[in-house]
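User: Here's a chain of 586 residues. Predict its fold as tokens.
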Amino acid sequence: MEKFQVFFFYFDPNCSKIAPSGLFDGSVSDITRRFVYHLHGMSTSLLLAAFSGFLYSVSLPNELLPFGSPLIGPIAVVPVFLAVVRVRSIRHAATVGVVFGVVSTLLSNYWLMFFGEFSVWTIGGVTVGYAAYNALFFPFLWVISSPKASLTTVLSSRDRVLPYRPVLIAAAWVAYELLKSRGFLAYPWGLAAYTVSSVQSLIQSGELFGVWGLSFVVVFLNASILEFISAPGTGFPDPKERRRALGYIVSALALVVTFAGFGMVRLRQEVPIVGEFTAVLIQPNTDSWETGNEESSLLVLQSLTREAIIEHGRPDIVVWSETSLRRPYPENQEFFGRFPARDPFTQFLREIETPLVTGAPWRVTPDAHDYMNAVIMIKPDGSVSEWYGKQQLVPFAEEIPFWEFSFVREFFRSVVGIFGVWTPGNESRLFGFSADGHEYSFSAPICFEDAFANVVRRFDHAGADLHVNLTNNSWSRTDSAQYQHFVAALFRTVETRRTLVRSTNSGFTVVLDAHGRTIDSLPMFTAAYLHVTVPVHAPSHRTVYSATGDIVPILFLILVTVFLVARVHTRDRHHRLDRADDAAGD
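Assistant: Prediction complete.
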């Protein structure tokens, strides 16, 4: 039979060692058997990765479990970690990462399919992006998982144990979460901490470490379970290895108990309240992206506002959702003086005699044609007292690189269906109002900005007494998308110990106190108003997280980087010594 020379790594039939890279002779049947065996070996790892992606998506908020599952989260990524332990090369580790990234992203972010006419680009772009992120990240997890692994080696199955492996895996995971939550492509969805967000005592750790400390605990528990069930070779670990692995599980559980104990103590310690005010939050359940319904949507907003005032009296402030006004207000006051025709907007403002906070476009400069996605506060006399322009824009939806070039604009307009972009704001501006003789200031992060700890932390440093988020999630058509957004925003209350008010187009409209507890809320996808008394908390001092920021994940990033550099240096030194010994032997 004809022989072929093939260049690749291959496993021996017992899977106890791997052949060196290079050329070998083999018949067609021999090569086929080895290739099929190779696929069979990888298929188990890929199935583990896919199963883990499923578990991880179920542990996050979804249609069946609105707040996710704190029971599944601590075990959700054990299968994919086990898959990483099983593989023997960087290429295989990257493949495992791709499978996990694709499955977990599609299952947990499927609602991106409803993102307007260019939904194929949003769900496709996010899925491809996370596949790429994990293809880069999982090889580093693989290197961390073995004492002899590097980005250029292929390992035998016996080299699987590394001291402090669970700690390194958890630290690397948190560092990865930080990196994917920053920059132009930032998307802080699906963090490990969100899987246990329904446990009030655990999320209180946010005031110390932000979301990162809880992410570390969740992943550390997963990695410790991996340590217990995996083996340094074939069969079960010896008693010494099992005791070592059991020690990691005990340590992880001790961390959980410590975090929960701290949280229970903090839940009993009320954050001082310096005042309160009444607010009316309007949830119109109309889609501001839909064309032809501008007038009907505005009529719904005004009708619900009047209904709330008639029923409960005049509040201190009225809050509408993101882009409730679809035209720049200052330049169109004459238009709003006659629109809607049945109930002109400016006449409505004079009637309610209450400051209105609403989303609206804002022209960057009077002579420019560039606009910001903004929040404005309109006084009863029709003048604008304050405004804020969204700083963290949605990549490739609200902001597109090189939009100033005509060929880029033409591509996105003709192929993708995006006809314009927003200009990002560059200042963390605050709003002020009076209630019961007190002056209060609040921030107004727009839409998914309340999922970014660094954005809200800047508002806290600017002096915000509370945070008021304006969001439009009606396009998602799913409860899970809105609960996922809410869970991400939930941590901002604990991190700053400030009240969070969320006024949304279709949900989740809710008011949270400084411990992240719900004061009042509205059901999803329902046209309704929420008349609520909002407490204003004044912590006696800035929280540890607000003072130090993302120091924890930064330290983890440094730790993992130093470890990897040390590994490379150590391996190079060993190689030099081996070559020297070989030369001496010759």
